[in-house]
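Same chain as my last thread, 495 residues:
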Amino acid sequence: MLDTGQIIADRYELLKRLGRGGFSEVWLAQDKLTEVKVAIKIYAPGTGLDDAGISLFTQEFSLVFDMNHTNLLHPTHYDCWERMPYLILPFCKNGSAFKYLVGEELITETECWHLLHDVAEGLAYLHAKIPPVIHQDIKPDNILINDEGGFMITDFGISARVRSTLRRNQGEMSSGGTLAYMGPERFGPSPAPIMASDIWSLGATLYELMTGMPPYGEHGGVLQKNGADIPLIEANFSEALKDVIYKCLALNPWDRPTAKQIADYAYSYLNGDTSAFIDVQSAGGDTQTTVEPTPLSIEKSLHSSNDRIIGSHSALGGKEIVEGWISKLKSKQGKIGMIAGFVLILILALIWGLSGNEISEENPFTDSPQHKNDLIYAPLIERGKVFEELGDRFRTQIDTLYENGDSVFEDYYLRSLELYRQVSAVGDSLSDSVYFCVKDRIRAVESVLDSALHTLREKSDMMEEFGQDMAARVFEDRALKIETYINTNKRNENE
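reply #2:
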């Protein structure tokens, strides 16, 4: 057990414990070499880690030292003492944002905006990494206040793998993060965090600082997932600030703003411009966030509308369809974003051409087609390409299979594969160029899915080894879905 006066690594004298979490303790310490006060964060106190755990920590924290940003509390040193990894951090004498909850000093409107800006800037930096770094545990305790009154994120760079190692060594089986600040998606069948989960945690943090308690008490987003509305903020803060918090706490991850959007808006608001975040529609007075759509929101739009549009192109002229969807994009449907609109318009432009209107000479399906089926199946191929692209984007931009296991990109690839195989099944009635193009696309998608299948099985085995039976079943189910689909369709194709 750690105690006051203890010397760590023959250098750091523990003066006062500043905080304790499930996996670590934070102490104020005196650096006996430099005579400077520092904060030392010691992981797995008392128990220590095995060789594999120490190796993993060393590997992971070597990456942390490459992360430099004004709003990240950057460690100055990392090492291991008596099988306990530790970080040396600058000591923030002003403490953390938690002080607004336990002291007499209440957070002000201006401080809320500054915290919102600073934390969002730090998250935007982490989320822009390739692959994205998900903090997983944004809360008042992990937001420190520097000497200039700015806010800095601590405890970043700890991946799901490291947290699993800590849980295993500490004998805990709970998910990474703190329950009260976990978004509703963290309580689903695939509970690992995504970037939007950090946004929900930020919203819950501000909500607590403004009202004195998290939006759903200690239960977190599980109540929201089960149908509970976001409790209104009754405290005396601006409607603009409340609105940002409500948007961060949106039930659906794709309805939340990005960290960069929050940071930009907070900066604009602090400088007197309140129009950047809200787009007031001239017709009807509706308001909507200017959130850039994620691939998931694009998929949502496509899934609900694509079949209807393509299935009805014979009843309406292509021009009317395109114009109608442009109108919808300008009204309530506009929240799917211009990216989704652009994708839809590309597809519809193709349909317009199939209705007898002119198509670009570069369209491969109209360059001296050898078979009428080239044109008939062109929409299926184009839709397959859209789903394939969505799989690519979701895999690389929203989440990463290898980092946190929350990717469900395989659903997009499976839909794409199904469409390609529908076209491939009529191979003899297609021109060679179209047929071989489809075959190439099938092989490309199957290659991705085969790789995903292998990785999911590995993650299932790893979770089982860590005693995470529920997570293991989730990964195995996803692997089985891919395996079954591929094998079934391969048999059908061969027959």
